[in-house]
From TrEMBL:
Name of the protein this chain belongs to: UDP-N-acetylmuramoylalanine--D-glutamate ligase
Every Mur ligase central domain range: 105-283
Chief location: cytoplasm
Residues reported in the UniProt entry to bind ATP: 107-113
One Gene Ontology MF term: ATP binding
Length: 451
């Protein structure tokens, strides 16, 4: 019997694939099943439980497919490991039943944007790849439904932790900065090892696209043996092959492909998005996309919400929703991309952040800091001596009121929290939606005049 731990998108898809391949399947969900997944399991007569785990049944499994949201330190997972029960990720499970081309994208920041852009460009190039992993539908569900020529898969470190033979034809490693260290015994090297697992099954016939100016990636590549052909993305050097900036263009050069795209015309802005665009364009070039169709695709791409999303303008004050920025490195990219003066809204559940890496940007571009959270001491400690206005708030409505009052026409109010959202919000999406709702309310009333 195969047991599926967690009945979200990945777990339900894994259950469907297991059933389709003739296995006895049991799904165990500790929380409450979302109605759409309950209906799927019932329609396919897949047995399940919710509201807790029946340990005896789970420990009797011959194979467990675990949701990436369940940490390895969970007692039940530890028991499974101790008795030698194989534990897989849904992506590993699905990859065993398809010979489709896999494009796998990871990184501490930028992976969703890069995944969506890669998939969008392939679609417009008449290469019908599926979209899976952290975005799109479960890979296992898509494999169950029928064959696609390929899949573009966003992969977190949690998913990479439980692969065995998963082999991407094209792997993308954007960057590695400290994140989720609570899942890795607060050891950065363990998190690094997890990210590099994306390369471990690749061969000389495969490709690894990476950002060469990322110091961790560069250092690790110098000491690791990676079988795949290496293709760098660079903002600093003109390269013989790869994606790189040349003058005012982003140039994609690999094999017989030599494309140039005006940077100002790209649909995503900022240096970090230049890296993301370079990686995506390099990937689609490797997969044989037609240049004219790629150019058309660039014109119609819209990024996922909560990533440097334009939330509107009120009396000359621009509002940017970057709620997805849950670590300091993401905020660094945002501060670099957004023009000064900035009224910065930050805060939430601090993950042991090192704010030193953005100190110079904050000094140069931020005129006021609006702290939003139940414990703003880390932000106060990091920036309280900078001489700028620092205000305390404990709700989105209060944060927007204070930020708008401190902004002048021509300023930007930037929500880029550097922290998790769980002190005041359900998730980063809820935080971003509340931000946009407050901006809309300002737009409809405009009762407060900025100073």
């Amino acid at each position: 019997m195969i047991v599926i731990l967690g009945a979200g998108e990945s777990g339900t898809g894994a259950a469907l694939l297991a059933q389709a391949k003739g296995y006895d399947v049991f799904v165990s969900e500790r929380g409450t099943l979302a109605e759409k997944y309950r209906q799927v399991l019932q329609e396919h007569h897949i047995p399940f439980e919710e509201g807790g785990h029946t340990e005896e049944k789970i420990l009797a499994a011959e194979l467990v497919i675990k949701s990436p949201g369940i940490p390895d330190k969970a007692p039940l997972v530890q028991q499974l490991k101790a008795q030698g029960t194989p534990i897989l990720d849904e992506l590993e499970w699905a990859s065993r039943f398809t010979d489709a081309t896999l494009v796998a994208i990871t990184g501490s920041n930028g992976k969703t944007t890069t995944t969506l852009l890669t998939h969008h460009l392939l679609t417009h190039a008449a290469l019908p790849y599926g979209l899976a992993g952290n975005v799109g539908q479960s890979l296992a569900k898509q494999v169950t439904a029928g064959h696609q020529p390929g899949y573009v898969v966003e992969m977190s470190s949690f998913q990479l932790d439980h692969i065995e033979a998963f082999r991407p034809r094209v792997a993308v490693l954007l960057n590695i900065t400290p994140d989720h260290l609570d899942r890795y015994e607060y050891k950065f090297e363990k998190y690094i090892d997890s990210k590099f697992r994306i390369t471990e099954n690749q061969t000389a016939d495969d490709f690894l696209i990476y950002y060469q100016e990322d110091p961790v990636v560069r250092e690790e590549l110098a000491k690791r043996s990676v079988a795949a052909a290496l293709l760098p993305v660079s903002l600093a050097d003109v390269l013989p092959e790869g994606a790189f900036v040349e003058g005012t263009d982003l140039r994609i050069k690999v094999g017989k492909t030599d494309w140039r795209f005006a940077i100002d015309a790209l649909p995503i802005k900022g240096k970090h998005n230049l890296i993301n665009a370079g990686a995506a364009l390099l990937a689609v070039a490797l997969l044989g996309a037609d240049e004219a169709r790629v150019r058309q695709g660039l014109q119609t791409f819209r990024n996922a919400p909560h990533r440097l999303e334009d939330a509107g303008t009120v009396q000359g004050v621009r509002f940017i929703n970057d709620s997805k920025a849950t670590n300091v490195d993401s905020v660094k990219y945002a501060l670099d991309a957004v023009p000064a003066p900035i009224v910065w809204i930050a805060g939430g559940v601090d993950k042991g952040n090192d704010y030193g890496q953005i100190a110079d940007l904050v000094r140069a571009k931020v005129k006021a800091l609006v702290c939003m959270g139940t414990d703003n001491q880390p932000l106060q400690k990091a920036f309280g001596s900078f001489g700028m206005l620092v205000r305390e708030t404990a709700s989105m409505a209060d944060a927007l009121r204070v930020a708008f009052a401190e902004a002048a026409a021509g300023d930007t109010v930037l929500l880029s929290p550097a922290c998790a959202s769980f002190d005041l919000f359900r998730n980063y999406e809820d935080r971003g939606e509340q931000f946009k709702a407050q901006v809309q309310q300002l737009q409809s009333t405009q009762t407060t005049t900025p100073s």
